[in-house]
Amino acid sequence: MKTILINQPGEIKVTDTPMPEVKPGEALLRIRYCGICGADVASYTGNQPFTTYPRIPGHEFSAEIVEIPENKYGLKAGDVVTANPYFNCGACYSCERGFVNCCTDNQTMGVQRDGSFCEYVAMPIERIIPGMGLSAKELALIEPFAISYHALSRCHIEPTDKVLVVGAGPIGLFALISAKLRGATVYVSDMLAGRLETALEYGADGVIDVSKKDLMEAMEEITGGKGFDVCVEACGLSNTFLNCIDAVAFAGNIILIGNGKKETTFLHSILLKKEVNMFGSRNAYTKDFKALIQLVASGKVDVLKMVSEVYSVDEADKAFEALVHNDGTLKKVLIEM
Q1: pTM of the model
Q2: Which of 93, 141, 159, 205 has its CA 20 to 30 A from that of 18?
Q3: What is the extent of the structural domain holding 42?
């Protein structure tokens, strides 16, 4: 089968690999579409802190069931589905307490274990999530949506809250949508005008182009100097993390989604002074996937507006390079397997 492989940072190729071995309790899936996540791009550039090489990337995907044994979920061959790509050990303290999303031995497809950028995968049946009639393209967008949806559930958000999302890539845009679903007033900052235009299309109450305007100056104008009730960091950069600390209100909340490799130095007393609540967020739960599939099926959110380009599997190198050099015009890029 055709497989997209990152041999080492900067080296990606389409190669032939054996068909997956299907073990008892697993189904054989034919991959339809894969989204290129920021983590996949970071794996390609060598900036993903958890990736090992060589690695088949990919964990945002839709698939068609090819073979599946009789099961209690009613899943059958021909169903178009997605799946939970975060494999947990089931035995660590996190798993014991039900926090399977942050298993201490977590293995996310495409990062710590091989992913979905191949024609076929074998998947444990309990990880497969019914598509409820959504298209294969829509289902490939559920995983990144779930990342942001789960992150925004980490703290209680009131309809009276002013939320700042720092970063208007796909994860930031899905964070915007998730905050709007909770009734908040949401502002989005970025340095790329194209991304900010998309944020407005998805209902942002305002945008801040930090290439033209100082973020703290914008915070003063928007909040009257009070600060934002919630700041969502969706870039994974040191300076955007520090921006969140500066822009958040006293007794406010910071949610961290962005993942990076660079250390950040700051005087931690500011967290005490402001009594800031800091929430890390990792992965998502199967229940998040299911809730968002229902939401998209209801027609309340059009996730397909997020898709900028669809590349063929043989154009994988072009797709990754396009995202490495993205000028803000690209949002979500899919590869059709």
Answers
A1: 0.95
A2: 141
A3: 2-144+283-336
